[in-house]
Specification:
homodimer, alpha/beta, Rossmann fold, seven-stranded mixed β-sheet, 39% helix
């Protein structure tokens, strides 16, 4: 049995897939502070126009420029693996396949969009990108991309991570990025918070505010902002994962996929593996498509579909999405990349349409799954990725109970070599499952109660 | 241009190459304390007999068992890359190729032999392996291998690294290994040193003593010791790298290789990429084969070819090798894996035969090279690997000066994601080039002056 199903570079997908073109109900637009749809022009100080055009595109297939492929070849096509050692350990009749996105230089799927965004910005004449990062996966991916394309890169890293994860910062600096702790004295937003709370650990909301401010206030007009998930064009760039997987499954002789699984924080990793299969489902295929999330941040399994801000500080337009409320602060689970209050509009809309079957998991079950994975497949998984592996185990056990030869595909979104403290806590018996803070959640949901609802909003085509 | 030259699993080499069979002068045997050759039986408490047989084998080609290939498929064949982005930055007519060994679960070439050794031990009925580790690359590779094969693994990790590199220890524990700081209270050797110096930072020499003691004193007789470099069978297992590279270069249309480069600490990484090409050189091919080392630990460029102990504590037999003396302590450069006083007998003998052209480099040049690499090829290199990259740059520049289209191959032996503090020092301008401690070196060489010399030793075929 072949363990790794490879694709040659010449067989790499040459178009991204835009699920927006196929959703039964068209995606509703973001709304500005006045409740009216945001026009593409209003986003121009934040993003380059070529990416804004992609954000609002209704085209099903969008060509991947050769210049982007030329950079992606460093690790793409990524290998598809048959998880045969894991299957043996589970004694399951299921055939489990996974895409290994950990082979990228930054160690996760994030560079797929980082490279694409940096390339489009450069094409548009932009010289410098600003972004925020929490645990550091996204910041290091963008630093990597900017380095190869000769763009300057500025990363506002949440202070507590900046202090606790010096290696992630060192990765960014090795790629030439300028990384500062957020809140920083470099922006008005940062100065204001530092004046009020000099010892604040920072937050992703604050870091987003700083990054956007730093982008839009650049006097030369050659700086833009870059976001690592949630938006349509970000999800689009990740679909190369699922498109490659389709070719590779065909090469492996699989005619049908029964289950597709990906973990979802902002939604881009899940979308990357799943959207090409959602297209099949819309066309009648019998597939279970499962985005997974932490029980402590149940955006997909508990939150209403509402308009809400993408950031805590309410700098962004209102997005139509499943949201726990922009003020919700999830318990400190190790999977930092899944601690986001909202969910990408495209993923949210697909849930509303009944195309997806979201699943919530506690972190102990996930670390148990990732430990079995490390001892069978050999690779040490990112804490986020463990939320996909745990769901795979549930599916594989179900297949065994039912005696079915299911084909399960999931995205192994990244390695966990920079995030081993969760494994330490697990091994020492100190890892706990936090309860969902129900009262905080209800309070947070109250705040967004009066925001427009997608079904009643003044929508319009962009 | 294709960036990654892939091999399918079915095309993986099915035999290892044993340079010992082709060296013009046969390798001389290790000597015991009495100056007589060590018999294979004398090594039986330390290593399983199937590996001892491999250690002394005169066969040119040795079959790789299917059970080992079955595990190696997780990351082998590893991709061969054309470093075209690096070439562009250097504006060189040279064509530069590199094997990416960083794709293994442990992140380096070390698992090639870790898996093989664990497999042979298991075949021999062994239940538990003991080893030492310095910075942690080898310990984590063996932990990984034992985990997949269901062997127990005990790692004695030099205390200063144990304290400074908790992530490497966590990797080992995630793979189920038991890792303790050395010196430990678990062995007599450790107890003795702790009684004398409770606050000692430890050393590789002490850790080797503890690991061997733990292996040979196991009352059940089901424990053996495992070494990550230096020995013939360890180098043998790494030759799969160079054998794959040959097939891949042929696939890339290259008819001839002009330069082969690998960094060498104990010698296994260099041997892995180079030995199949040394065979060509013995048969008349015009190839420069360059093992690289730190100027501060100039085993190949300054040390005599002598018999010496493999460890500081003189527990091991005497090996015929280039050695700075078993008491030599190199300055604290970041490339911990290259801070070894000796060099593998097979590599040493090839140097004596005039088959290799060793090169010594200072660490500042190496970090400068690795930084250019990160910003062009994208991958962040291990500090050891940077010693190969710097040599590649020298060769590429020379090719430019001479206007020659040289083909350069080197082994990108591992990623540096767990070892970023050297990059930090480099970026902050704090990285220094240590002088070679000449006086200490002369004193260390004096100690081995009276040990037998390979040319005059009572040698004999094993």
């Amino acid at each position: 049995m072949t363990v790794k199903i490879l694709l040659e570079e010449k067989d790499i997908p040459r178009q991204w897939y835009n699920l927006g073109a196929d959703l039964p109900t068209p995606l509703q637009p973001p709304l500005g502070p006045d409740g009216n749809p945001v026009s593409p022009e209003m986003l121009a100080p934040v993003f380059p126009m070529n990416l804004i055009e992609q954000e609002v595109s209704a085209e099903r297939w969008i060509d991947i420029p050769e210049g982007i492929l030329d950079i992606l070849y460093r690790w793409r096509p990524s290998p598809l693996y048959r998880a045969k050692y894991f299957e043996e350990a589970l004694d399951t009749p299921a055939r489990i396949y996974y895409k290994n996105e950990g082979v990228s230089p930054a160690g996760s799927h994030k560079p797929n969009t980082a490279v694409s965004q940096a390339w489009y910005n450069k094409e548009f004449g932009i010289k410098r990108l600003c972004t925020e990062t929490g645990a550091g996966q996204w910041g290091s991916a963008l630093a990597f991309a900017c380095s190869l394309l000769g763009l300057e890169c500025k990363v506002f890293m949440v202070r507590i991570s900046f202090d606790q994860k010096p290696f992630r910062r060192l990765m960014m600096e090795t790629w030439g990025a300028n990384c500062v702790a957020s809140p920083s004295p470099e922006t008005k937003a940062g100065q204001k918070i530092l004046a009020e709370k000099p010892d604040t650990p920072g937050s992703l909301g604050i870091a987003i505010s700083e990054a956007i401010e730093a982008a839009v206030t650049d006097p030369g007009g050659k700086t833009r902002y870059s976001l690592g998930s949630v938006l349509n064009h970000v999800l689009l760039h990740q679909t190369i994962i699922g498109l490659e997987a389709k070719k590779q499954l065909e090469k492996a002789g699989e005619k049908q996929v029964d289950v597709v699984i990906g973990c979802a924080g902002g939604g881009s990793n899940f979308a990357g593996i799943a959207f090409p299969f959602v297209a099949d489902k819309i066309n009648g295929a019998d597939i279970s498509i499962i985005p997974t999330e932490p029980t402590t941040c149940p955006t997909m399994t508990r939150a209403p579909f509402s308009y809400d801000h993408g950031d805590t500080a309410r700098m962004t337009p209102l997005l139509p999405m499943h949201s726990l409320g922009h003020g919700f602060v999830p318990p400190p689970i190790h999977a930092g990349g899944l601690r986001y209050h909202g969910m990408a509009p495209l993923v949210s809309q697909a849930i509303v349409e009944g195309l997806l079957e979201p699943m919530a998991l506690h972190q102990l079950e996930c670390y148990e799954a990732a430990s079995l994975w490390a001892r069978t497949e050999g690779f040490i998984s990112a804490p986020e990725t463990s939320h996909a592996i745990a769901a795979v185990i549930r599916q594989a056990k179900q297949a065994k109970e039912e005696g079915k030869e299911k084909v399960i595909l999931f995205n192994w979104s990244g390695h966990g070599l920079m995030d081993l403290t969760g494994y330490q806590a697990y091994q020492e018996g100190k890892l706990i499952d936090y309860p969902l803070p129900e009262e905080e959640l209800q309070n947070s949901l109250k705040v967004i109660e009066n925001l427009p609802k997608p079904s009643t909003a003044k929508t319009g085509k962009w």
